[in-house]
Fold:
Amino acid sequence: MRYTPLDDEAARALPQLADWNIGDGSISREFQLRSFAVIADFVRDVISASDRLDHHPDIDIRYPNRVFIRVTTHAIGGLSTHDVELATEIDSISRRV
Structure:
């Protein structure tokens, strides 16, 4: 797969990443959900989307209701449009849970 690289500055200009932290070639976001059980459903859906897009984030689950997600394109050692696509999908999932 070919990736279109993005530098941190270009990523900060994208409105779909407004809720994400951008730096050091990655994007990250913490989600606070209603319960640990809801987090499990959220993570399951993120994994499903990640498999479909063939792009996998780092996921850190913290009891009782937080999950931290970090996305980067390992193949290029930084950000790409593929990260933006996955982040947009993750945001959509978070609105449904």
